[in-house]
């Protein structure tokens, strides 16, 4: 049986920054995000178990690191992929190895989701529609009352 290891919060943050993730905060937890290369609305999120109300990560059995893939265009948000929890057991290197494995799987799931032809066409249509709508609003605003 593997044992719990206290992974330093700074080590987790440095690891995620080195992989191109950006730090955000969601409900008192530090969450790292990275947009997909092909579509910035598809995002890989890593819930770190680092709390903002206290220094460091949560204790043994209190929480685990989670990775997911979501679609978020600012108006609509839904999950694309959910992956097994990353328990902080073994060694720090083992935890980072499992994190990297899950992050790669999450990115691959985003790529798979984008390859579905109907999804890509729908996204392109919505993006074009939003662009035309913004242009109409700007023209109406500039026209005055």
Spans where pLDDT lies below 50 across 5 or more residues: none
Strand line-up of the largest beta sheet: 1-2-3-4-5
Query: What percentage of residues falls in helices of 4 or more residues?
Result: 40-55%
Largest sheet: 5 strands, antiparallel
Quote the average pLDDT.
84
Describe the structure.
With 145 residues, the chain is of the alpha+beta class. The chain has one domain. Helix content is 42%, strand content 24%. The protein has a five-stranded antiparallel beta sheet with strand order 1-2-3-4-5. Strand 1 and strand 2 form a beta hairpin. The longest helix has 27 residues.
Protein traits:
145 residues; alpha+beta; five-stranded antiparallel β-sheet; 5 strands; 24% strand; elongated
How is the secondary structure organized here?
Layout: H1 9-18, E1 22-26, E2 29-35, E3 42-51, E4 66-72, E5 77-82, H2 92-115, H3 117-143
Write a concise synopsis of the structure shown.
This protein is of the alpha+beta class and about 140 residues long. Helices cover about 40% and strands about 25% of the residues. The radius of gyration is 19 Å and the shape is elongated.
